[in-house]
Design brief:
Layout (H helix, E strand, L loop, with lengths): L1 H31 L5 E2 L7 H24 L8 H36 L4 E2 L1 H24 L3 H21 L20 H30 L4 H23 L6 H25 L5 H22 L6 H26 L16
Antiparallel strand pairs: 1-2
Helix pairs in contact: 1-2, 1-4, 2-3, 2-4, 3-5, 3-6, 5-6, 5-10, 6-7, 6-10, 7-8, 8-9, 8-10, 9-10
Length: about 350
């Protein structure tokens, strides 16, 4: 009975948070859109203010969920472990804001196709903003309560898909796909794709932090040096991906290319060192890792040696394989790693 009451109480709290997000989102939307009627998308549209307000509301809901349910998690941790936990929470909060905002913008582009010529008043736009904020806030609050590595992997997948689709729909160059995804980062709508890469890089690094957390919960302080290598590999991969977004191909072609190939190489390195760090390496994870490395190498060979694939196709293959592998890793860790927090007994992760 206690378990049922606890779940009902949690559901009630989530519903109250959803209602609060709707009210705050509506009020913020009305304030941001006050004045003349606005179109759904385009210059001076409803969707950009709605996306910003919804993203901020979702970020606040995530922080509230994390603080109210996991505030004591770091109480007995050493400073370095507490710092890693707090930095990861900040990074996920930024990603939640970005995912929600881009999701609203993408939804606006889709709605505009079926509602051509529609204009909304401040009240109508405010209600639309409140609806978006309530959905984003509800999901963000639930994530803040108990965020796991598999949730982060799903968030990264959703963010990349939403951000890329929005960039495609707003691209100034309709033939971008003939070259590479980097062409989406050129022109008036470049901020969507480049911003997606920067936040995705932050998320990749955070996924590495959570993978390290799961490995520490599973193995303890003994192999902390090996776990630190895993986290460093994912952090480097995330930094390279973020650099791709911060160095657009039209402004810095050589640094952009270096960062892009570094990100692809570091993905493979991170996959290998992570797979080797997982104890007893389950056959499923071993098979997925071998498949990632072999198929990525084959796609690279087909692209540059035989010219059978375009660079865009190569990027699609590698990113798809990575997301599939990451999903497999996250699910394996969710099964074999304890869910309870494990404070470290070391003052530093690099020395006993």
């Amino acid at each position: 009975m206690d378990r049922i009451e606890r779940k009902l109480r949690a559901l009630t709290k989530a519903l109250w948070v959803t209602a609060a997000c709707f009210a705050i989102g509506t009020a913020g939307g009305v304030a941001a859109l006050w004045g003349v009627d606005r179109p759904l998308v385009g210059d001076g549209s409803v969707m950009l203010p709605a996306a910003l307000v919804s993203g901020v509301v979702a970020g606040i809901a995530f922080v509230i969920g994390a603080v109210t349910h996991r505030r004591d998690e770091t109480a007995s941790m050493p400073r370095w472990q507490t710092a890693v936990s707090h930095v990861s929470t900040v990074a996920v909060t930024a990603a939640v804001v970005g995912v929600t905002a881009l999701g609203v913008l993408l939804a606006g582009e889709v709605l505009a196709v079926g509602l051509q010529g529609i204009e909304l008043s401040a009240l109508g736009g405010g209600v639309l903003t409140g609806a978006a904020a309530s959905v984003g806030g509800h999901l963000a609050f639930r994530a803040g309560i108990d965020l796991r590595t598999r949730d982060l992997a799903a968030l990264l997948f959703a963010f990349l898909i939403v951000g890329t689709l929005f960039a495609m729909m707003t691209a100034t160059d309709p033939a971008w796909w003939e070259r590479s995804f980097s062409r989406l980062g050129i022109g008036g709508g470049a901020w969507a794709f480049n911003g997606t890469l920067v936040v995705a890089g932050l998320l990749v690094a955070t996924v590495g932090s959570y993978v390290g957390r799961d490995l520490h919960r599973l193995l303890g302080d003994g192999p902390l040096n090996r776990i630190a290598v895993v986290v460093a590999a994912w952090t480097g991969c995330g930094a390279a991906l973020a650099a791709v977004g911060m160095l657009p191909v039209d402004r810095a072609p050589l640094p952009h290319a270096i960062a892009a190939f570094a990100a692809l190489a570091l993905v493979v390195v991170a996959a290998i060192v992570t797979s080797r760090a997982v104890p007893k390496r389950p056959p499923l994870l071993r098979f997925a890792t071998v498949g990632l490395v072999a198929l990525s190498a084959a796609a690279t060979l087909l692209t540059f040696a035989f010219h059978a694939l375009s660079v865009t196709a190569l990027e699609s293959v590698v990113i798809g394989l990575l997301l599939l592998w990451m999903s497999t890793l996250a699910q394996v860790l969710d099964i074999i790693a304890p869910h309870a927090s494990r404070p470290s007994g070391r003052r530093s992760p690099l020395r006993a």
